[in-house]
Here is the input.
Amino acid sequence: QVQLVESGGGLVQAGGSLRLSCAASGSIFWINIMGWYRQAPGKQRELVATITSGGSTNFADSVKGRFTISRENTKNTVYLQMNSLKPEDTAVYYCNYRKPDRTSDYWGQGTQVTVSS
Here is the structure.
């Protein structure tokens, strides 16, 4: 089992910044992919960004140039720095941990990010 604890969501004005954190604990495999997904009301959950334990990153086109993702492997923690936030970034953001073969796939409880115009 893997537990994911997210923090850092909140309310911010358009153009502002927020930083999300997600700490993983439990049966962590040293080769893994951690990342963030989001779900807005009435929409499907979508990829925001992922980062492998080796540091390779992947971003949704909608956040490229505005969001960065990083991790501290010694702390099993992943961060999402969100800059130049837009109202359309409003969603519940979920942290994800998985092994590359998806035999282990876990989600956090979600943290609300609201961007006011």
Remarks:
- The chain has a mean pLDDT of 96.
- The longest strand covers residues 18-26.
- The radius of gyration is 13 Å.
- The chain has no helices and eleven strands.
